[in-house]
């Protein structure tokens, strides 16, 4: 129980805190566009400070009224620093805001007071970083404020750290015993550090609850893939290639398993905050965030389906779409709402504070590799397939002016590839949303088709990338991709322009490892055999060696000096929360060869269409909780309502 005296004391403490605590060290007040050099952009912290000093009727929050509602997270590791995240609030929920912001409100400034009751009480939070799991030796610490203006999120940069070193961290409400869970994180290697190995887990497409367009039922998925990575504890960093959330309405809360909130398609800042907050209550996702530093990029569903720079397949940048689709939120406003919530909730850096849409950035991982994270979706992408313009996209897919990335990012990307080679990094890992290989599908009538929403529909951007790699002899490129909910493994080639031997792999300039989804629907909701019959329709592509679209899961990427290895894992089901994991296929790339090593996948895979033909179907899985191996079969992948 909090006594009046205790409240008085806390009030004194909070008055004392401003000399120590800071708004601007909480990066979310500077997000996405404010920095100290232009304080009129972003959130007006001077105004929030004045608001907090006005005499008010309610007392400030006592620590007992506050909770660390969504555990902790870390991300974007550099050699000497890492981003730490938490949320401490009087409520699980975001402050409600339904009124559209209008007038002269600065871009991205979503100051709550403009449209909803803002809390007058900032909350002082302390963070500490430890060398040891027992949390005794502090190596960095600080105090920051959070408030309803940033949905009570806290994002700080822990600094002064040693490279490639594991640390633990914890938050507490200032001057109290109210603490967050203890998180673990790891810094990046120093750029010139000589390393034996770095290991990544690569995820994409985690749908809390999905509607199946192809089946007579809704599909719902548990995030077993996140849980398996956390339980195995076999990687240094987690990479997420987007579709971290989905924007759709799905299920009735309180009735349907994993029904989403808010119970509607999301448009407002409140909507996006609430949806992100719900996802972050998933125990497997929480476990992964608390254990590994994440390096994420968004795909389309962090904002809306099949997006490009000027709209989405659902909400178009037209009067008709604005009036008739959703609650009359414009494309630009919806994008700002989603982006703001994303920066608030994700442990991600803003490498360019003047560019609120920029998430493309890179990480130097010792002398082993550069991790180049690009945005082929929302930044500056030319028009995509919006479902009713497919023929148009086919007609223009080869236009030189089309770009997935926009000129600014494209030029940065090519420079990154060159500087990575120049500095002698062994590998270039390109973290992007979309499948890069020029994949075509054979239709029943014998005709060929390709996706209008992938690199194939932006041939000029694809060609410029390949030209840069081939002409500058930049080899050992590893493209990693998500988006399709299907496993695809290919040699990276320039079809029709540079010679390629599809038997030996000679002529390739790298490889592509594209991964299935954490839980989103793949090639079939029915069976492995059904998914394999669909996968076979892609057998005409010379560079494509494996297609598997039944199992949900993820892959690990192990980078070493002389070879890279991709290990694909499936979840036998996501219809229930469990810890079974099915090894699907292992691929090796020798540094001296720059293509998939033969025999492919060591000669056999578990499931899917495989060029070599040796498909085991053993169903032999390991329980990542107990270590026990067993042949397991669940008969269904998704919950069927
Ligand atoms: Fe997806």
Structure description:
By secondary structure, the protein is α+β, with helices and mostly antiparallel strands. It has two domains: 23-186, Immunoglobulin-like, CATH 2.60.40; 197-631, Purple Acid Phosphatase, chain A, domain 2 (4-Layer Sandwich), CATH 3.60.21.70. Helix content is 18%, strand content 24%. The chain contains eleven helices and 27 strands. The strands form five sheets. Strands 5-2-1-12-11-8-22-23-24-26-27 form an eleven-stranded mixed sheet. Strands 13-14-15-18-20-19-21-25 form an eight-stranded mixed sheet. Strands 4-3-6-7 form a four-stranded antiparallel sheet. Strand 3 and strand 4 (138-146) form a beta hairpin. The longest helix has 17 residues, at 406-422. The radius of gyration is 24 Å and the shape is globular. The protein starts with a helix and ends in a 10-residue tail after the last strand. Mean pLDDT is 91; it is low at 1-19. The site of fe (ii) ion (FE2) has 6 residues, from loops. Fe (ii) ion binds next to loops.
Helix content: 10-25%
What Rg do the Cα atoms give? 24 Å
Shape category: globular
Question: What ligands does this structure carry?
Answer: fe (ii) ion
Calculate the mean pLDDT score and round it. 91
Number of helices, counting only DSSP H or I runs of 4 residues or more = 11
Structural class: alpha+beta
Give the terminus-to-terminus CA distance.
Answer: 45 Å
Strand order of the largest sheet: 5-2-1-12-11-8-22-23-24-26-27
What is the architecture of the largest domain at the second tier of CATH? 4-Layer Sandwich
Overall tally of structural domains: 2
What multimeric state do the chains show? single chain
By DSSP, the count of extended strands is 27
* The CATH fourth-level homologous superfamily of the largest domain: Alkaline phosphatase D (PhoD)
Q: According to CATH, what is the topology of the largest domain?
A: Purple Acid Phosphatase, chain A, domain 2
- CATH C-level name of the largest domain: Alpha Beta
The biggest sheet, with number of strands, parallel, antiparallel or mixed sense and barrel status, is: 11 strands, mixed
- The share of residues in extended strands comes to 15-25%
Low-confidence stretches: 1-19
């Amino acid at each position: 129980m909090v006594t009046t005296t205790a409240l008085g004391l806390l009030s004194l403490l909070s008055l004392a805190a401003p000399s120590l605590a800071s708004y601007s060290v909480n990066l979310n007040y500077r997000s996405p566009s404010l920095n100290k050099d232009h304080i009129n952009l972003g959130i007006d912290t001077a105004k929030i400070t004045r608001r907090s000093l006005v005499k008010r009727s309610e007392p400030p929050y006592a620590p007992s009224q506050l909770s660390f509602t969504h555990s902790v997270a870390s991300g974007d590791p550099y050699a000497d620093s890492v981003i730490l995240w938490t949320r401490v609030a009087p409520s699980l929920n975001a402050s409600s805001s339904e009124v559209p912001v209008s007038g002269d409100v600065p871009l991205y400034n979503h100051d709550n007071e403009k449209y909803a009751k803002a809390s007058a009480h900032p909350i002082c939070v302390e963070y500490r970083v430890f060398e040891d799991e027992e949390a005794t030796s502090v190596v960095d610490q600080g105090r920051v404020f959070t408030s309803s203006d940033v949905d009570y999120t806290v994002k700080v940069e822990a600094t002064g750290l040693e490279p490639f070193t594991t640390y633990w961290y914890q938050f507490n409400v200032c001057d109290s015993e109210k603490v967050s869970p203890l998180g673990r994180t790891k810094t990046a290697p120093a750029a010139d550090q000589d390393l034996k190995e770095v290991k990544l887990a690569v995820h994409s497409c985690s749908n809390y609850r999905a509607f199946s367009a192809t089946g007579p039922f809704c599909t719902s998925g548990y995030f077993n893939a996140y849980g398996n990575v956390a339980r195995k504890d076999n990687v240094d960093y987690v990479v997420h290639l987007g579709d971290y959330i989905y924007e759709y309405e799905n299920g009735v809360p309180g009735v349907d398993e994993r029904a989403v909130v808010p119970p509607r398609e999301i448009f407002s800042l409140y909507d996006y905050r609430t949806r992100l907050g719900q996802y972050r209550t998933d125990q497997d996702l929480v476990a992964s965030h608390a254990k590994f530093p994440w390096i994420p990029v968004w795909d389309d569903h962090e904002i809306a389906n099949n997006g490009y720079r000027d709209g989405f397949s659902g909400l178009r940048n037209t009067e008709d779409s604005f009036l008739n689709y959703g609650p009359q939120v414009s494309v630009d406003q919806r994008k700002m709402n989603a982006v703001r919530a994303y920066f608030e909730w994700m442990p991600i850096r803003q490498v360019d504070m003047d560019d609120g849409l920029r998430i493309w950035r890179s990480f130097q991982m010792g002398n082993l590799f550069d991790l180049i994270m690009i945005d082929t979706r929302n930044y500056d992408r030319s028009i995509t397939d919006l479902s009713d313009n497919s023929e148009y996209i086919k007609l223009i897919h080869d236009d030189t002016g089309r770009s997935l990335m926009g000129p600014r990012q494209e030029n940065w990307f090519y420079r990154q590839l060159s500087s990575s080679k120049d500095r002698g990094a062994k590998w270039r890992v390109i973290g992007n949303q979309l499948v890069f290989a020029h994949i075509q599908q054979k239709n029943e009538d014998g005709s060929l088709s390709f996706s209008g929403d992938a690199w194939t529909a932006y041939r000029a951007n694809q060609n410029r990338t390949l030209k840069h790699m081939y002409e500058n002899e930049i080899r050992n490129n590893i493209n990693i991709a998500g988006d399709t909910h299907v496993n695809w493994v290919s040699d990276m080639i320039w079809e029709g322009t540079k010679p390629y031997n599809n038997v030996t792999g000679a002529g390739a300039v790298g490889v592509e490892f594209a991964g299935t989804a954490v839980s989103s629907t793949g090639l079939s909701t029915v069976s492995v055999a059904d998914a394999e019959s669909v996968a076979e329709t892609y057998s005409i592509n010379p560079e494509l060696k494996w297609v598997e679209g039944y199992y949900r899961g993820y892959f690990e990427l192990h980078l070493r000096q002389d070879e890279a290895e991709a290990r694909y894992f499936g979840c036998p089901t996501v219809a229930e929360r469990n810890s079974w994991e099915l090894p699907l296929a292992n691929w090796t790339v020798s540094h001296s060869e720059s293509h998939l090593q033969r025999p492919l996948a060591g000669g056999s895979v578990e499931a899917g269409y495989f060029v070599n033909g040796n498909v085991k179907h053993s169903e032999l899985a390991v329980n990542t909780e107990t270590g026990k191996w067993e042949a397991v079969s669940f008969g269904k992948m998704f919950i069927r309502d």
